[in-house]
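[step 3/7] inverse_fold.run input=structure_tokens len=119
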């Protein structure tokens, strides 16, 4: 997917959210996208002041991707704490977001573990 330049330069949280969701829909199954959105919505309900977030991905995110994630966390979910990024190839794919003591794990490794436990 080629991301529309006007969407990335816009200050509209709705537009940025739409672009991120479309990107995720192209790369991941529908249930993954829905789970990420549901889990991020939980961030909005929690106390975010003074917290730190850590975003973990299997491959390094580029500056554009980081900027989009930060923008969504700040504008759409009112997160005002520090946001750090790191990579961990062991998660195989997907993303893990840690905020305070909450962990939103939508990694492929976690999904595979759940499937293994269900068998």
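[step 3/7] decode complete -> sequence:
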């Amino acid at each position: 997917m080629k991301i529309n330049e006007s969407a990335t330069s816009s200050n509209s949280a709705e537009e940025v959210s739409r672009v991120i969701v479309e990107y995720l829909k192209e790369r991941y199954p529908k249930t993954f996208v829905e789970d990420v959105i549901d889990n991020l919505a939980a961030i909005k309900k929690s106390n975010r002041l003074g917290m730190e977030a850590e975003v973990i991905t299997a491959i390094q995110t580029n500056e554009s991707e980081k900027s989009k994630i930060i923008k969504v966390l700040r504008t759409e979910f009112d997160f005002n704490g520090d946001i750090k990024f790191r990579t961990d190839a062991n998660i195989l794919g997907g993303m893990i977001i840690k905020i305070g003591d909450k962990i939103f794990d939508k990694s492929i490794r976690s999904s595979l573990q759940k499937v293994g436990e269900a068998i």
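[step 4/7] annotate
DSSP finds five helices and four strands in the chain.
The CA atoms of residues 9 and 73 lie 16 Å apart.
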